[in-house]
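Supplementary Data S3. Sequence and structure tokens for construct A.
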Amino acid sequence: MYRGMKLTSDQIDQFKENKSKLVSINGFLTTTTFRLTALNQAMKPSKRTDLMPVLLEIQCNLEQVSNNVIVADCIHCNELLNEEQQEIIFDLNVAFRLESMRMEEDMWMIKMSASNAGQLIKEKYIKDSHRQMEDISIRILFGRLMCDMGQWDQSQHFFEHLLNNSNSYNEDLVKLECSLGEVLQWKGEWNEARKYYDRAYDRIMNLKSTRIKDSANILFNIGEILYREGKYEEARDYYERAF
């Protein structure tokens, strides 16, 4: 399969640094089985002058790769499709092993092979995390996985959706608000993060059952925010309360 695109020199350098390693691509990846179509995509004119044309060549055995990796094989969807419209779409679980890179006629040629490793890593993460935190739902673990992968916007939207539909999903509001606070903290949106931490902490204080671990984590995270804001004395107070 092939995919034509344009990348900056920094993005190309990131590919170089990961040669022979597994790489992931944030979002769905649409590819075509026709090289010429991908070449035309890569060579499309752009107003930006800092972009270079790139052709991805992806090796993928459709019989061996897990169904979790392939979203759709449009070649078989409709016999009336012409050749240029035939596509293979990979989903978020896919990982690619970067095999080689070379420059050819002012275009970067990047060879990769599709792997099930992304799905296996995700499953292992959820199993390991679930063993450590048995009181956390699979949905919240999945949102935290996205956060750990650096997909902060996706994680934030996912948690906001769960929070807005908490009655339907029957999720723990304290865990949701705390998780959303952590995502916002990673994004550097400290004021918004603090709001969710405060809500979660107030919710704990109003519960009949004690949740020492959850309250300690929230207090520690608030201390981290205060420390980064230069409020060291106030931060120390929250650290001491957490411990």
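Construct B, processed identically:
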Amino acid sequence: MPRFLSGLLPSNWCAASSFFPKLFNFRCKMGCIQGKCCRTCAPSSDGDNDEELSVYPAKNTNIPATMSLDVIDIPSHNLRLSYSVLSQRGYYPETPDKENQDSYCIRTCLKGNPNLHFFGVFDGHGLCGAQCSTFVKHRLVEKLSDDPALSDDPIKAYSTAFLATNDELHSNSDIDDSMSGTTAITGLVIGDKLYVANVGDSRAVLAVKEGDRVVAQDLSIDQTPFRKDECERVKLCGARVLSVDQVEGIKDPRIQSWGDEETDGNDPPRLWVQDGMYPGTAFTRSVGDSMAEKIGVVADPEVSTVQLTGDNPFFVVASDGVFEFLSSQTVVDMVNKYADPRDACSAIANESYKLCSWIISFLIADLLLD
């Protein structure tokens, strides 16, 4: 089971200031490092919103796909890590030229260490969402890499990096993050350990073999007002928590029960200032969003830790565009059908094409351990 730990909240954390999906998919496979095609460190890459990758002919899908595939070694545990990334630009019928606000980051061999690798997906939102996600994908991994305590205390390093990146984004004069920001779901592989840090409503899921079944085990918990602990936390910081129907007087605002995300996701509870109709965020944590920060939306990550074993064939990291419509188990079942990571990417892209009306992003990692 993963061990969930929250980062370090600053002392003033309350008061401190589509039909075609966009798809990021990293699928990593681990095995013996003695194969001739291995190399210690594959090229790192950062997925900007308009990055073009080599084309891979997707199977069983009518969605165009761009994808890359690479392999790296983790010599400390005699593992191989292969990964791919697929990107599909989003499409909104009313705004076909809408800017894609998602970014991804892959950094292998952090600090020159062949056993240390970073993967992240960043889902921007607001008028400056693209700038926010791009800024965060660069600065977060740089701050992690520069932290001398990363290898010894990755949980503390994660918290420090997220909070410092958030402060830098606030002070950046070129980006208005007052009503814009990004969620972030990231994975840090250190040997046979996986550290997942989440800020927002994205999700990481580990596949676990149980007999002849492969079951989904969440490595993160969506940070939304559906969570009682998060709802109470932001209320203590001054937030009103209401759905849009409640704000508009269609439903009784005194009713503070919204069911769950799977059955009541069409009109979720949102965060509002006491005397205004903003910011209306459906998440309780993010990087940026300086206006929402005043009512408890913080950049402090929740970090989970899990040891990767032979019973973990893969893990998935995805934005809410995937899990808004597909359960963790459904995604795991889909990925488990494919031997080639790129085919798994295409399958989820195709399913998302049929079900969702906005941009999605996700990461998949196969784990084969000797």
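Helices lie at 129-146, 154-171, 228-236, 244-247, 290-293, 320-323, 328-335, 341-355. Residues 69 and 84 are 4 Å apart (CA to CA).
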